[in-house]
Amino acid sequence: MQNIPFIDKSTIEQHYDFAELIARLKSAFADSSVHVPMRHHHDYPNPPEQEDSTLLLMPAWDPGKDLGVKMVTVSPNNGAYELPSIQGLYLLLDAHKGYCKSLMDAKSLTAFRTAATSALAASFLARKDSKTLFMVGTGALSPMLIKAHATVRPIEQVYVWGRNIDKAQAVVDQLQGESFRVEVIDSIAQGMAMADIISCATLSKTPLIEGRWLKPGQHVDMVGAYKPDMREADDHCLLTCEVFIDHYAGALKETGDIVIPIREGVITKEDIRADLFELCQGAKPGRQNDQDTTFFKSVGHALEDLVAATLIAESVDKANSQ
User: At what angle do helices 106-125 and 18-30 cross, to 10 degrees?
Assistant: First the structure.
């Protein structure tokens, strides 16, 4: 067997291109050639933590071209061990002959594709003149979300909030040298009052984004709440906003931000305006006017992983051949 190249975090960070990935994701969501089975989501006991961890298996394939599987674990208490909460590998294979083309660091790949997907949604849902972004959360995804949104909207000012001010400052420090200003802010309500786009990526189990703090014209980008019992937005937020999702199968099953309000009768499935497939295909409209308050819930889709992994592999191969 040939040696299988491993594309690590630093290599992914050297080769990612948000503008290119956003464009490719838009084409992929508009097309139907990529096959994506429902992902496996298994919560498994973690007795030392007295709390479940999660295993995710996400396959996708473009017939005759590429096939990929992402294997990810989520251990919410890993901060106590100075380890990331999300860890895993991405396996990229040749869908014609079946051989493994590369292994990739799944966490970095996930951050890249998740941020690009949120930005793709914002290209349909955020006002075109959006200049201020409020980032709630200080994990590895936060700087990526900020840079991705700045790819599709003319962001000039970014505010960052986190429970740990040192971690919030670390996000700010990572973004020094970017074209926008970045600073730490004291409260979520304060940040929401000044934002055109609100992006939230946390492991919170209870709502952080309250509808009473929203203003007409804002766009809310929700990335956390990856389990049915977790929420980042309250009921008022769902009732205030025009609601969009990345895909129905995942959003209606896996995230408490959608599952709980539907189960409790706060909203219905019919209140969801569109998913990314419908937006990219032009089947349904996004933002209708500057007064709409829009809400996008991302749960992740294996199509995004395959498109991102293929782009990274192509970029690395091109660099190695020069």
Answer: 70
Distance CA 78, CA 49 (A): 10
pLDDT digits (tens, 9 = 90+) for 180-189: 999 999 999 9
> In the structure, what pLDDT confidence band is assigned to residue 130 with cuts at 50, 70 and 90?
very high
Spatial distance between the Cα atoms of 191 and 185, rounded to a whole number of angstroms: 7
Architecture per CATH, domain 120-300, reads as 3-Layer(aba) Sandwich (3.40)
For residue 3, what pLDDT is reported? Answer: 83
Instruction: Give Cα separations from 51 to 9, 54, 80, 200 (angstroms).
Output: 28, 10, 14, 23
**% the chain with pLDDT above 70:** 99
Best CA proximity match to 126, nearest among 182, 196, 188: 196
**pLDDT tens string 195-227:** 999 999 998 889 999 999 999 999 999 998 878
Cβ neighbours of 205 (radius 10 Å): 14
Query: Residue 1: its pLDDT value, please?
Result: 52
Residues whose CB falls within 8 Å of the CB of residue 321, separated by 6 or more in sequence, listed in order: none
Residues of the chain with CATH 3.30.1780.10: 6-109+303-321
Encoded tokens for 113 = 């594709």
Give the architecture (CATH level 2) of 6-109+303-321. Answer: 2-Layer Sandwich (3.30)
Residue 79's pLDDT is what? 83
The residues near 124 (Cβ < 8 Å, ≥ 6 apart) are 244, 279, 286, 287
Single-letter code of the amino acid located at 134: F
